[in-house]
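INFO batch 0412 | record 1 of 1 | parsing
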Amino acid sequence: MTKRLMISSIALAVFAAPAFAGGIAEPVMAPAPVPVAVAPVVVNTGGDWTGFYAGAGLGYGTLEAEGFADDTEDYTYGLHAGYLYDMGTFVLGGELEYDATEITDATTGINLDGVARAKVRAGYDAGQWLPYVTAGAAQAYTSGALEANDTGYFAGVGVDYQVTQSIRVGAELLRHQFDDFNGTGTDIDANTAAVRVGFRF
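INFO prediction complete | emitting tokens
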């Protein structure tokens, strides 16, 4: 009896195993999360250069002409005012400037008292920096051995930096030419380098 019971138990276990195995649920795989597209953050690196401004400058200038001494040079100082229009990438504007000088030529006794300029400026908006080129007309005023004034032209480069929205500092290099100055037959060239500070309003 015991032997028959044992055989019955084994047979029952063998036939029941597939039923239990089929009843086990297969593991459910969670779907992979769908990546969400994130809009890139646009950083505006451009500055705002539009507006009127005025300021002052301090620099150094040299004169070159036939018959002039090699060391005809001295300090310059002056005022400027203008307007810039920022178009997003490029900046255009105009400026009026007057620089007084202490430049005297020891050979001829000619003093350069000052230079007035009417400028056109074109620059690249690089955020807080504004590198630019400039050109225009210049009026030179002399005294001493030659009391006269005459018109020439100039061109140069510069850079401005925005310390704040209303304060800017910069530097500028200019090359001037005055051909046949005041009918004397003498061509005078002038170079100036200046540091500038301006205020936008």
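INFO post-check: The CA atoms of residues 41 and 127 lie 17 Å apart.
INFO record closed
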